[in-house]
Write a structure and sequence with these properties.
- Helices cover 25% and strands 39% of the residues.
- It is of the alpha+beta class and 155 residues long.
- The chain has a single domain, classed as 2-Layer Sandwich (Alpha-D-Glucose-1,6-Bisphosphate, Chain A, domain 4), CATH 3.30.530.20.
- It has a seven-stranded antiparallel beta sheet, with helices on one face.
- It is globular, with a radius of gyration of 15 Å.
Length: 155
């Protein structure tokens, strides 16, 4: 199985993190400013698709699961290696080194068709965007595309 796996702590409760992962404003606050889709009652729901635009490219993610502790998407449109892959955010309760509460996000982007240079690029970009997610949830300001940190010769 090819994929990417990351872990990050966010000093906020599950509801704030899920909101950032499931609303148009939340997603636009940390991943890409260009997010479209049907957000009934302001939030994505299972079976709905969300389109993320990144300059020349777009990705369509079908929401597979949305619960208080998990957000799971399946890529329907995107790079060949991504189509059919799954992007999974699992949330657990954690404790920061100073004793404060935090939500731990276990992130997986799994079921890639092949592992190649795109996988390496995306692994680093997911890390960048997860830091953006943390910043957005904790401070209200993320670094979504096109204002994200550029990491290599692809962007």
């Amino acid at each position: 199985m090819n994929g990417i796996y990351h872990k990050i702590g966010i000093r906020a409760g599950f509801p704030e993190v899920v909101k950032a992962l499931s609303t148009q404003a939340g997603l636009a606050g940390w991943w890409t400013k260009e997010v479209t889709g049907n957000f009934p009652n302001g939030i994505s729901s299972a079976g709905e698709s969300i389109r993320f635009h990144f300059g020349k490219g777009s990705f369509d993610m079908k929401v597979q699961e949305l619960s208080p502790q998990r957000v799971l998407w399946e890529c329907a449109i995107g790079p060949e290696e991504w189509v059919g892959s799954h992007i999974d955010f699992k949330l657990t309760q954690g404790t920061a080194p100073d004793g404060g509460a935090m939500t731990i996000v276990f992130f997986r982007h799994q079921d890639w068709k092949t592992e190649n240079e795109l996988t390496a690029h995306c692994s680093m970009k997911w890390a960048v965007f997860l830091l953006s997610l943390r910043s957005f949830v904790e401070t209200g300001k993320g670094q979504p595309a096109p204002d994200d940190l550029k990491i290599d010769d692809w962007n």
